[in-house]
Amino acid sequence: MPARKIRMEVFDSSGNRYAVSFEGAVTREKALRLLDLVELLGGMPGVDSGSTFRAPNLTKFDRLRLMVEKHFPIVWFSSRDVQFIYEQEFKEPISLSTVSTYLSRMADRGFLAKDGRSNRHRFKVLTTLSKVALNLIRNNKKSTI
To answer: I need a surface site. Which of 31, 38, 81, 84 has the fewest CB within 10 A?
Structure first.
């Protein structure tokens, strides 16, 4: 794989500028790590977990998505982690198979990254920056083929 270079600039709420660059073989994992760093420098947008989070008209899918954004904004997590938090938050049971199905659907729709073997999947929220970087990586792979 030819060497690539990624450079990002982030401005925080105080007006400070951070420039981050990476040179070398850019893999998906490396790009996600770089974007995690950029997100931390620039701050993470908050998720309003107030009345919207507990609205009775939300589906289980929507509740799970909001919970994932709130509790796992920048870390990898498993279906069991989400099941545990869901049951603590809503005081109602949810099957592990339901959680796994919904998380896989979120990954298929581009909301989550999915890694690992089928019985050991790990998930991670894809931020806007992550999605842009993954599209760049995909486009670079297509152009080298």
So the answer is: 84
DSSP letter string, the chain: ---EEEEEEEE-TT--EEEEEEEE---HHHHHHHHHHHHHHH-------STTTT-TT--HHHHHHHHHHHH-SSS-B-HHHHHHHHHHHHSS---HHHHHHHHHHHHHTTSEEEES-GGG-EEEEPPHHHHHHHHHHHHHHHHH-
Residue 36 pLDDT > 50? yes
- CATH 1.10.10.10 is the classification of domain 60-125: yes
